[in-house]
Amino acid sequence: MIPRSGWISHGIALQEVESVADHSYSTSVLAMFLADLELERGNRIDVERVLRLSLLHDLPESLTFDISKAYLEYLGKRGETIKDELEQAAWKSIIKGIQVTSIRKNYDRLQAEFNAERTVESKIVHAADRLDILLQVVAYRKRGYSEVTLAGLWSSTRKKLQGSKLSSVRRLLNQVVRL
Fold first, then answer.
1. Secondary structure class of 19 (helix, strand, coil)
2. By C-alpha distance, which of 66, 65, 30, 37 is closest to 51?
3. Which of 21, 28, 132, 146 could be cross-linked to 54 through a Cys-Cys bond (beta carbons 3.0 to 4.6 Å apart)?
4. Hey, which of 85-89, 144-148, 169-173 has the most confident mean pLDDT?
5. Which CATH architecture group holds 5-177?
């Protein structure tokens, strides 16, 4: 099990920290739901693409582990760059083992699409990723963890989601905030 280290830096006990696999699964389910909500509104969404993006989005962490942004602050401006470089190297290591060139190139395009966050499908997955963080905050609060300890993460993640142009994201965010 690879724990999500960001929770540890926020004071969550290691035995209660969700794994990267738990997070990836939850993000995929949330992304599928958001895509379906957008489809219900009449928007054109490639649900298969959403699912592929969500399933691949944290795959490099299977090699790099989850590198918390809190830990990267010690490296200053270089921290995020180092994380990106590590995850890119891990990604290349993962896909080099795919012998079918067309599949490898497709996965590479999907990863680049996710990282760029320009398509509606990638925006849905990023929103699902962030919504999962908020749902975890709610779960940890219910387990007795301090609201103060998690307030900064709650606030910054919520702010990112409030700016979404997707009504499904704002709708689900409003439901999560009421939990």
1. strand
2. 30
3. 28
4. 169-173
5. Orthogonal Bundle (1.10)
Contacts of 108 (CB under 8 A, 6+ apart): 91, 95
Q: Which amino acid is at 96?
A: K
Rounded to 5 degrees, φ, ψ at 141 are -60, -45
Question: Residue 14 in contact with residue 8, Cβ under 8 Å?
Answer: yes
**CA-CA-CA-CA torsion for 22, 165, 174, 145, nearest 10 degrees?**
40
How far are the Cα atoms of 42, 73, 103 from residue 63, in angstroms, in the given order? 39, 21, 20
Joined tokens for residue 178: 């009421």
The one-letter code for the residue type at 24 is S
Mean pLDDT on 3-14: 89
| 69 pLDDT above the threshold of 80 | no
- Say what the alpha-carbon torsion angle 124, 126, 128, 131 is, to the nearest 10 degrees: -130
